[in-house]
Amino acid sequence: MPKLRKCVNYFQHVLDFQLDICKATSIEEAFDQYFTEEILDGPNAYNCDKCSHFSRATKSLSIERLPKVLCVQLNRYAYIATSQVKCA
Predict the structure, then answer these.
(1) Is residue 49 one of the residues assigned to a domain?
(2) What's the number of domains the chain is made of?
């Protein structure tokens, strides 16, 4: 896989967060999991729009500026295959 040398940044205005509380014991832990850096590699590698090459990359989220009103959705259910399981 060729290495891309240019850093790509996308900015998006966010007004709400969907937090998975099935894997977290607190809201703080759910936010930590939401903002954890993800490595894109193998079948999940980043595909460059300009050169069409797949490359290993990292994906992370950060907040530049909080909105005046922030909505937080707590996802209490996990979807496994075709069933819906409620978290304890």
Answers:
(1) yes
(2) 1
Rounded CA separation 16/69 (Å): 9
Predicted model pTM: 0.64
Domain membership flag for residue 55 = yes
- Would you state the pLDDT for residue 28? 93
Q: Where are the beta strands (DSSP E) in the chain?
A: 16-20, 38-40, 46-47, 54-55, 57-59, 71-75, 77-80, 83-86
pLDDT at 16: 83
Cα–Cα distance measured from residue 64 to residue 36, given in angstroms and rounded to the nearest whole number: 16
Whole-number pLDDT of residue 86: 67
Question: Whole domain around residue 48: which residue ranges?
Answer: 16-86
